[in-house]
């Protein structure tokens, strides 16, 4: 499949059809909403099909909808091919805040490079709740900020949705040095790759590639056709050298509910 065909399938499967167990799915003619069951977490709009004429009215409607939900707020994830072309400016005009642009990369597992299919000889483990502090140790070592909130979130995810998430940590001499996770949406052919942080002193040793490999092999076993990842500037060149294709660019825009009370 070429990238145009994959992008059309991504829009259909992942953006319009996938279900996520922590969220309630709502569809209208213009947007697809995923409303968080936890009011302290952001909900999100992952798909929209607006026009220049109706964009402002639909954005106002969505703000009112999520304000009525009483939650923390929501993220409107935009894609470079979304309409209208000036959708980001409309969102900014309505008080949304832009996050950093990311590259959406996809790999067709039917053409998976051999490097991801070989047995992984490094110490990469699929972990459970008891080892989540190892994820925190890696992320805090890379980004120098607290990730205790992620322990709470991942604990709930693994408790409520054990088959939906897989969390991996790579170790060197029993020290956690790389952390990443995958999700497996229902009604979608796209398995998601998330995380992928590696401590600086352990980079360029093939550890990140090994963690991608174990997740690719799991996705194949589960019957998924594609891997998808919102890649940072750090991971993008590594992934593109190893079989991932640039599909499009994405930018999240966040609206926070001024009336939200914990």
Characterization of this structure:
This protein is α+β, with helices and mostly antiparallel strands. Helices cover 32% and strands 31% of the residues. It contains seven helices and twelve strands. Strands 1, 2, 3, 4, 5, 6, 7, 8, 9, 10, 11 and 12 form a twelve-stranded mixed beta sheet that branches.
Features:
262 residues, alpha+beta, twelve-stranded mixed beta sheet, globular
Q: Terminal Cα separation, in Å? A: 47 Å
**Taking all residues together, what is the mean pLDDT?**
94
Strand composition percent: 25-35%
What's the main sheet like? 12 strands, mixed
The helix fraction, in percent, is 25-40%
H-E order: HEEEHEHEEEHHEEEHEHE
Structure at a glance:
Helices cover 32% and strands 31% of the residues. It has 7 helices and 12 strands.
Q: Which helices and strands appear, and what pairs or packs with what?
A:
Layout: H1 3-17, E1 23-27, E2 31-36, E3 43-48, H2 55-69, E4 73-79, H3 87-93, E5 97-98, E6 102-108, E7 123-126, H4 132-143, H5 148-160, E8 165-172, E9 175-183, E10 190-198, H6 207-222, E11 226-231, H7 236-241, E12 245-256
Helix pairs in contact: 4-5
